[in-house]
Amino acid sequence: MSPITVTSKEPSATELDLIIIPVDTSKNIGTQYSPEIQKHISAVIDRIGFAGEWGRAEVFVAPQGMHAPFVGVVGMGDPSLDSAKKLEGLRRAVAAALLDARQHLLRNVGIMLPDTASASALCEAVLFADYWFTEHSAMQKREQKARSLTTVTLFAASAGEASRAKAIVVLAEKVMEGVTLTREMVNQPASHMAPSVLVQHAKKIAKTSPQISLTVMNRVQAAKKKFSAFLAVARGSKEEPYVIHLKYIPKKKPKKILVLIGKGITFDSGGLSLKPANSMEDMKIDMAGAATVLGLFSILPTLEPDIAVHGIIAACENMPSGDAYRPGDVITAMNGKTIEVLNTDAEGRVTLADMLSYAVTFKPDAIVDLATLTGACVVALGDTHAGLFGNTKELNEKIMAAAKATGEGLVEMPLPEEYRPTVQSIVADVRNTATMKMGGAITAALFLQEFVSPSSISGQAVAWAHLDIAGPVYAEQPLIPYWQVGATGYGVRTLVNLVEGFGK
To answer: CA-CA distances (angstroms) from residue 345 to 99, 286, 373?
Structure first.
């Protein structure tokens, strides 16, 4: 249950441990405090060198006469910054202040609402910062019980602003439920997140709304659909593989059709091209694309978009065994293209080949896949940004705008035509690893593009985008304050913005 409430009452009417005040580079404290208190706070922030810098947070003992024992000042940056940048600074700074508060057991917090537009970012900061993954740790359970936030009150300047902010907070809380669901799934060890568990999550989501339907295909049913590439990857594991197909249809005739595909490798050992032991440690996260799609679908009944949305997941493990697919094998994807397997650890793109081919059959307006696809993308962009590859300028621009509005890091990447021959095979149509060593994120995307290009199924290309999310879905260290260590829920909020604006 969310601890957040919104009020137009004076902060002095609420019992607080900490009051957080957003400040821009003008260092204006606000008129809701007496001149004496304003002067005292200004003196403190001058002494510590705080100048309202973007994303900075400082917590200190409150001056006498304040209605809370501690004060936090959070930097919004220069007032001339664009709205998205300003809100991201607020999101980061408030989360940092709340994590500081956690260490000092400050559990009842008030936040001065700068304006109605800030309500969503503040809600996100609170719910990001107050996330705990406790299922397998007695210590984490104790810490959560002792340190989690009890109340968070947003103080609005008027009753009208409070009313508008409440409506925004309600929606933001629902979006954050989807983000938290994604984080919970990605944080789970593979022993608790088999393909069958992804199916259970999908079934639970489908029951929440008559607008959502679900089709689940087992190994036999997938074979009938000619998902031979997916099934080749799945062969090495004793876990039953599943293709999960969620479909949201609005009450009125849909304006457009959007297909979202999430990579669903619930554990990736590398298969016969076995990974080193230390490279397997975090391979529970290889289903983060699937978790992101499921997180979005849990929100769709609240969003009620005017478009049809398909969510497709190929869920399996990539394991070595006597029946595992081998380097040198040639397999046939659903669209009839043949794939030479050079490395069984490049399995995600092989499963996606079938799912992209399947998506094309619905004649959508766009296909977007999300996958923890390559380490090369992490080398290029680091841990906070995903890479965006696409075959149309219009779709790329929509996704970039959606990501910017949420503060999620995304970089548009090239798809050079001159690299395409590197994914061509002399014994099959394509090969699952390129002939050149560098540019691995690009060549992986070029491989995927082969399955949305003009094909025997549709005869025409479809607008398609690929998000390589290998870096930002899991934080080894909290480079962004509201992430913490572990799963970040990256991508869910970008998809929410994309879906909301896609029919326009």
So the answer is: 38, 12, 10
Is the model's pLDDT at 213 over the cut of 50?
yes
- Which residues, listed in sequence order, are joined to residue 466 by a DSSP beta bridge? 369, 389
b/e map 279-292, b = 16+ CB within 10 Å = eeeebbbbbbbbbb
**Strand duo 385-390 + 409-412: pairing:** parallel
Q: How many CA atoms lie within 13 A of 211 on its CB side?
A: 21
The backbone region for 126, taken as left when phi is positive above 0, alpha when psi lies in -120 to 50, beta otherwise, is alpha
What are the contacts of 476-481 at 24+ separation with CB within 8 A? 476/383, 477/383, 479/383, 479/384, 480/92, 480/384, 481/55, 481/57, 481/92, 481/93, 481/95, 481/96, 481/99, 481/129
CB count within 10 Å of CB 376 equals 19
| Model pLDDT, residue 460 | 64
Active site residues: 275, 349
Using only C-alpha atoms, what is the Rg of the chain?
24
DSSP bridge partners of 256:
none
- Tokens 């290998």 appear where? 470
pLDDT of residue 220 exceeding 80: yes
* Predicted TM-score (pTM) of this structure: 0.96
Annotated binding site: 263, 268, 286, 345, 347
Binding-site residue numbers for Mn(2+) are 263, 268, 286, 345, 347
Mean pLDDT across the stretch 330-351?
A: 98
Residue the block writes with tokens 């395409």: 420
Domains of the chain: 4-176 (3.40.220.10), 188-502 (3.40.630.10)
- pLDDT attached to residue 31: 66
pLDDT tops 50 at residue 406: yes
Is pLDDT at 457 greater than 90 in this prediction? no
Give the model's pLDDT for residue 456.
Answer: 45
Mean predicted confidence (pLDDT) in 187-201: 98
- Mean model confidence pLDDT for the chain: 95
Return left, alpha or beta for 141; rule: phi > 0 is left, psi -120 to 50 is alpha, else beta. Answer: alpha
Residue 459 predicted with pLDDT over 60: no
Nearest Cα residue to 293 out of 379, 181, 210: 181
Check: CB of residue 318 under 8 Å from CB of residue 236.
yes
